[in-house]
Amino acid sequence: MKNIKLATLFALVAFVCYLASCSDDDVVVDESNTNQQSVTVYDTVRTTIYDTVQVVLPQNDYEGLYVYQLNDFLQSKIDPTLYYNIKILDKNPNFDTIRFSLWDASQIKVNLDLRECEELEEIRDYALYYCQNLIKISIPNSVEHIGKGAFYHCSSLQEINLPESLTSISANMFDSCVCLSNIKIPESVTEIRVRAFAHCRNLREITIPNSVTTIGWGAFENCTSLNYISIPSSVTEICGFAFAYCTDLWYITIPESVTEIGEGAFCNCTRLQDITIPKSVTEIGDYAFSWCTGLNWIRIESSNPPTISQLTFYNYTGKIYVPSSALDTYKAANYWKGLADQIDVW
What is the pLDDT of residues 232-252, one digit of tens each? Predict the structure, then answer.
């Protein structure tokens, strides 16, 4: 039964592709319109109206349809020059999951509105993977989970609302969404997972809510337009390469809740000028600040030297400021003593 559930939401995205035989006006649900033609494809009904489009999920005993079944049919109906606003009308009470493995019919430009699908609970892994002309998507608050890679490489995606019931930003969820410039993360989210926003090269600002405890491996890697970020006091771990290659990042605050800074966490942040590491941090990974060519100084507030390796400050030539009472401790500590010429008091 669960496997059958996996199929449904993918079908509705495929119907978006089928809309191209209509005009490029806003899509409105209008079941009473008499100027309409109904087409049944793989148990899925699509209604074409002269100026409006209605996508209706069928009344049936199963809970899903696979979009890839429709691709050959849809390809012949696409007009890639048009821009569509699509509204999905949920007529299947069992419809609670989007599942989609590949949307070949990706030329159509689409704003997708799912807000009337009030029973929708889940958008599965890779649901809208590589839908390169998806411009905007509206998601109902009934959605509790969005799977990994759900919007991977949606390279035209500019706007999305995340439901307030969401608890995590899954791995690769927005990886390579190069047109996404800002996004609001709900207060319900506790974890930003692996490469969630990696390669979002147009992402300029993002607010991490005070509910988040972990910023995953490569979460914001190569977000080359991100210039400022404040990490909330709820975060305890900044994982490896979390902000690596954020070449426009010039300022970041690390709260005293953080205990570990992972390998390469800030490597190649070439515009970063200074950074303060709070006394709560007990471990700093390899290459954490390597190739930060604009970094002038690092201030470490702890009197107990954090655990580092020979590679933690590889290629870093700036000053490392420590408490005056701990200067000798740092210069004698394992691996820190190799940085003695760079260590000074603040």
Answer: 999 999 999 999 999 999 999
